[in-house]
Amino acid sequence: MTEAEITEIAGFGYERARDELVNVVKMLEQGGMDLDESLALWERGEALATRCEEHLAGARQRVEDALAKRDEE
After folding, report:
1. Which tens digits make up the pLDDT trace of 5-15?
2. Which are the contacts of 38, defined by CB distance < 8 A and separation ≥ 6?
3. Interior CA angle at 13 toward 58 and 20, to 5°?
4. How large is the greatest C-alpha to C-alpha distance in the chain, in angstroms?
5. How far is CA 57 from CA 52, 64, 65, in A?
6. Which of 16, 18, 30, 43 is found 20 to 30 A from 5 (Cα to Cα)?
7. Which residues have CB under 8 Å from 14's CB, separation 6+?
């Protein structure tokens, strides 16, 4: 993956990253690509999955913070 692709994915919101990840999985499942194309697509999928995980971790932390604040009050 290029630095430009990594930077692009880093700016994705959760829904965009998730939707693109779904498309990557579909394309990989269909097959028909050569090995280099498949590996590049797999790498993109890994980066997209990581981005989704970052969003989910952030959301989880916000919920935990809100619950802790509520319990303090």
Report:
1. 999 999 999 99
2. 28
3. 120
4. 59
5. 9, 10, 12
6. 30
7. 51, 52, 55, 56, 59
